[in-house]
Amino acid sequence: MRIMGLDYGSVTVGVAMSDELLLTAQGLEIIRRKEENKLRRTLARLEVLAAEYQVEEIVLGYPRNMNHTEGERCEKSEAFAAMLKKRIGLPVVLWDERLTTVAAHRMMIEAGVRREKRKEVVDQIAAALILQGYLDYRRNAVQGLSE
Questions:
Q1: Helix, strand, or coil here: 120?
Q2: Residue boundaries of the structural domains of the chain
Q3: What is the pTM of this model?
Q4: For tag attachment on the chain, is the N or C end more exposed, with fewer CB atoms within 10 Å?
């Protein structure tokens, strides 16, 4: 079993994948599109990846505001989640993604990654951070039940 993590943006979708043991998340790729509402190819690519990696669940970053309110990006994420469920037929979990892009930038700066390169991969790293947060939560919830 694997879980796919997504960082859904206006023109990109960062994609991450868990390992089979659901311990770690690795950035996989960034899907780019020319216009925000042109999602057919994006959904088709995600469907291929889900089948290729035998994904059983999708975690989609949910961009709440810092004051816990939900704005326009949350509505777009909810609509994208509905499209994913319909197209791929897998459960989609909305996962709080606040500050993941900031953390991704910070990690790359500390690693000495040049600004141009950071822009190319930030969504993929953010997807991995979203997914890793969810995997850690799942593992901790299961451990809490067994104690």
A1: helix
A2: 2-146
A3: 0.86
A4: C
